Amino acid sequence: MKLTALRLHNVKRFAGRGISVEGITDGVNVLSAANEHGKSTCFEALHALFFQPHSGNPKSVQMLRPYSGGNPIVEADITIEAGRYRLTKQFHSGRRASVTDLGSGRIVAQADEAEAFIGDLISGGTSGPAGLLWVRQGVTGIENRSKSEEENDKRVRESLLSSVQGEVEALTGGRRMSAVLEACEDELNRLVTATLRPKAGGRFAAALEERDRLQEEEARLAKEVEMLHGALDRRRSVQARLSELENPDEEAGRKTAIANAEVVLEAAKLHDRELKALDAEATLAASRRDEAQQVFDRFHTALNRSGELARRFALAEKELSSAAKRRTASLAESEAATAEVQAAEEEERIDRQLLARLEAALRSRHAAERLAEVRLRLEQAEAARQQIEDGEAAHALLAIPADAVERLEALDLKIVGLRAAAEVGLPTLRVDYLKDASGSVSMDRQPLIGGEDRSFAGIAKLDITGVGTLTIHSSRQADQDGALETAEATRQTLLAKLGVDSLRAARQRDIAARNKQEELVRARQRLADLAPNGIDKLHLDAARFAELSQDPVELEADPEEVRARLADATRRIELSRNRAREASVMRTEAGEAILRAQTEHTRLGQELEAIEAVIGPEAGRTELQQDLALKLSRAKEQVDAVELRAEPLRRTGRDLAGAEAALARARSVADAAGREIARLREELADLGGQIRTRSDGAVEENWLESRDLLAAAREQVKRFETEVGVLDRLRKALTATRAAARDLYLKPVMNELAPLLGLLFDDISITFDGDTLLPQIVRRNGLDEDVDRLSGGMREQLSVLTRLAFARLLARDGRPAPVILDDALVYSDDDRIERMFDALHRQSRDQQILVFSCRQRAFAKLGGNVLTMQPWQPD
Predict the structure, then answer these.
(1) Where is the YhaN AAA domain (predicted)?
(2) In the chain, which stretches have pLDDT less than 50?
(3) Residue 94: CATH number of its domain
(4) Residue 694 shares a structural domain with residue 835
């Protein structure tokens, strides 16, 4: 590969302008200028062109950007065996990369394909061989550097020497083996320490921690499951005892005993008490039946609604998919139209240049014709700029934070959940008024409506007209932590901050802001089309054309044929631009369609999630429906059973008579049974609370899930252990193989370096480290010197000569590359620098050398092709 030209625009000190270095030839090329004239800028720009991807933004790319901003553009012409090409990259905004065949003018690669083309030229980036052929200002590659930089240099030089030997494709040496070994070590370092112990913060250590955590979680859940089973067993025994105590036969026996003591009186009292108890039981059973009926009805209503929502949700998904396809098609059509515009504009530019050469005498007339066009575009550009300023002001008023709508939706869901949680489990009361009742009952100064359930928490005071006040105490407190009030206050604060009164208004405002943003994008694009170089440039063009149009010019020839071709090219540009505008409108409409589809899809999804929260997962809906139906049936059966027991008592009556002594004894027996029943009921309530708490928490399901997760975690740990063993074994095998092949690397480098050292030094030899392949000891006049004790001039000369030797190896390997030096000889004396010039000219017979230097007087003796920087503007 050989360079023939370098161009850069808006790079570092060349803000808003560009320069070009043309006429780079074979052999030695010298660009010599004073400091701060842009030589190092040219070097850094050329380095970024070859080694930095256009899509990235690392620090080295950021340093190219001038303080005033803008998009750096770097362009180089090269010659390779396949032909002559132009490499172009633009960084930051408007990122692009392209490769153009200079022979045909055709673009052969763009974007990632262009990066791959350049990567093939440099054989692996800065970590490949080409990276060593660059010598930057003040960097020799031998001076003391950080540990990470030294390790990187070692890997780079090993990679170079391996590639020179032609061992690229063998795993016993070369870049592939080095890359595999480095990847193996990197993967091991992510998992374990140097002693093969799990590395803190790594995936292996995280897997071990997850396994230990799951073991503790599984043990805790197993204990809770055991406690749940114990509570269920105790509840069954308590229910059996209660059933025994509440058996009608037992109660009849106690009543018979009371009747034997005081037959008439106690029988009548027992009759009255039993009837009241059965009435209360009937009321409770009816309440449970109504509650079960309401739950059953709500389930069926939600189930019926879910089908319709699922159908609409599926339609919304199809519409969203269709909108996405339309947007993809419109984007492809827009890109094709843009490419057509660019091609047409390129043809028009070529014709215009030809017309300028043929009709130099028509410039004044052409200026007069262009004056009206420029003034029209200037008026349109001014109008577009005013539209942009107005749109930006309107957008600033409409814009809201990106996550504001999502936060409002989350708060609404949270408030609904808190309200529902606050009402669950609260005690309720209900009043059924008589038809001819004259009074009423009120709670907290609000009349209670007959037949409606009313929940309360804490203390409830019932005002009964004509009777008094009934105070009821509840152990349940509503929303003691104030979470509901906090959530509502947060929501109201957020709405006030956004300047809206509801979630719907926030969504509408967000959509309006997006629409305004799209209008701004179109207006900016229109301004860019009308004034690609700015409105000030249009003003300058108008003034220039006005001045040129005042000068009369005699026409020496008739350029009608060229003008016709130019007019045809202009018409094609207009047609292609119209198609591009049409494609842009289609793209905008497709974007709006997908926004509407996404909004409808999200709304239906949220509503469907709310319905599914009621009816549960689809797999368990049948079981849930059967369970609700069974509960309703049991509640109805319980009501019928109570009514069946109460009906005989309502038909019969008892006389109030009996004996006091027998009554006292019978009551003592009944009281004892009642106390035991009460105690058992309290215990049953406690057990029910414990069971509900653990059942609501899905303890058994969580326990089973934790067992599965624990098994998976153990399997993951086992896989990591296997992976570490395999990687360690692979690393040992690769290290042993590379050590065996190391002797192949040193001899070719020394063979190429020896004649260069003889040319520069009278009596000198270099000893390389057998492990790192880096210069270690220099033998001069029979004395050994460490490399780090050499003078700065000696070290930089060794660095340059080593690159020249490496370049010769690359050329012999069939991959010639230019050697680029940026002020690399700053410490050398006059005699030694002239010898270095001889070495450069000797090596330049077979390759290209490009030298940047600020030492104008010293490098005047170097000779070679003298380069200069000229102003340049990109097309």
Answers:
(1) 1-52
(2) 124-132, 136-145, 149-150, 152-174, 557, 655-659, 744-745, 772-773, 826-827
(3) 3.40.50.300
(4) no
